[in-house]
Write a structure and sequence with these properties.
alpha/beta, four-stranded antiparallel β-sheet, globular, seven-stranded parallel β-sheet
Length: about 375
């Protein structure tokens, strides 16, 4: 069975060998962790390219992808024209600014960048916010050379091809533009601003996906959307707020994807989000990631029992606390439990719970994937 067959078999909820995702936007590892694993294995490989500067995760080396049984390959559209990645620094920090004018900051001894300043943060009215010029989602630069790149992947690999979104969802991107504190206040105090940003983001994403999938919609197997709606204890805001502002906007994005491609819909949503899983299923989500099993209400056995016929769980392979603080035997036992809970009757793609962190012990990372590979 090929990599693509393993993954698609799981999405169709059929029993079979365990598929593994390693190396994508939500399933890779920090550059320090990659370096530590390579050293532990005694290999000499080139330093990998950074996949996402925000998280400081890498495109893992081909040797490590093979060792860990990776069945998927990520694909990204290009950024818009007229923008190039630049870094600045002062005595203590490094800074980067994306094409939206969102500025990120990382302490020089830190592990990753974090949100520092937002282009709409200091604006006090909807009239001011409406003056902001949004990047062009249909900029031809975004798809220049993309079809040839994906055709090459399709011919040279048997792996599932995943198109990753260029921004967060209608809530997540709204707070990257506005600031999280400001947006959460807007939901109550300035509903016109919150509604405008949710609508504008969804409109932009629908246009971006339509533009990109016109080029490669027939070549990709999975398309990623998402919205980080949860904390470790529950939703960031009430389900009523989700229904009011975001659910139907996320449906509109998925509808646009379905018009342009037959690809499966992968939804990235961190935290304790069990309360809105029925809503995600209702809007057309087929795959849920990263399945944060350590969060409230997100235990693997219960999720599989309640939603296993409707969703493919993608992630949830090992409690991050065990991966970080346990030993190899702890990791092996934890991985076996999650596979036993999730894998029966398909509907499960093994992966870490989000990206592997800089401080995770390399022997534990190796043990996690070596245990998973025993279910092939």
């Amino acid at each position: 069975m090929t990599s693509r067959e393993r993954v698609l078999n799981a999405i169709r909820h059929q029993d079979g060998p365990l598929p593994v995702d390693f190396g994508g936007l939500h399933s890779s590892l920090h550059k320090n962790a990659h370096r530590a694993v390579i050293k532990k294995l005694g290999w000499q490989v080139a330093e990998p390219e950074i996949q996402d500067w925000f998280q400081m995760i890498v495109f893992p080396s081909p040797e490590l992808l093979e060792r860990f049984g990776a069945d998927c390959v990520p694909v990204y559209a290009n950024p818009g024209s007229g923008w190039t990645l630049r870094f600045e620094e002062d005595d203590k920090n490094e800074y980067m600014t994306n094409e939206w004018g969102i500025r990120l900051r990382k302490p020089k001894d830190g592990y990753f960048f974090d949100l520092y300043s937002c282009p709409l943060q200091r604006m006090n009215s909807l009239e001011e916010i409406k003056k902001y010029k949004w990047p062009d989602p249909e900029d031809p630069a975004r798809v220049k050379g993309l079809r040839d790149k994906v055709l090459k992947l399709r011919k040279e690999t048997d792996k599932v091809i995943i198109l990753f979104n260029s921004i967060g969802g209608s809530h997540e991107h709204s707070y990257f533009m506005r600031g999280l504190t400001e947006l959460l206040m807007d939901l109550v105090a300035n509903p016109d601003i919150a509604d405008y940003l949710a609508a504008k983001t969804a409109e932009w994403e629908a246009a971006w996906f339509t533009h990109v999938l016109k080029e490669i919609g027939d070549l990709v197997d999975i398309v990623q959307v998402g919205d980080d709606l949860g904390s470790s204890q529950g939703l960031i805001f009430s389900r009523q707020m989700y229904l009011l502002y975001y659910k139907y906007r996320e449906r509109s994005i998925i509808d646009a994807i379905r018009k342009a491609s037959k690809a499966h819909i992968y939804f990235h949503c961190c935290g304790a989000v069990r309360e809105v899983i029925p809503d995600l299923i209702d809007i057309g989500v087929e795959i849920l990631n990263p399945v944060q099993i350590q969060a409230a209400g997100m235990d693997s056995e219960g999720l599989k029992k309640e939603f296993g016929k409707d969703l493919t769980f993608w992630g949830g392979g090992c409690n991050p606390k065990v991966l970080t603080t346990g030993n190899e035997k702890d990791v092996e036992a934890e991985v076996r439990k999650r596979i036993e809970d999730f894998h029966k009757d398909g509907g499960f793609v093994f992966a870490s719970v989000h990206n592997i962190q800089a401080v995770d012990p390399p022997e534990n990372i190796i043990a996690m994937f070596e245990t998973a590979m025993q279910y092939r």
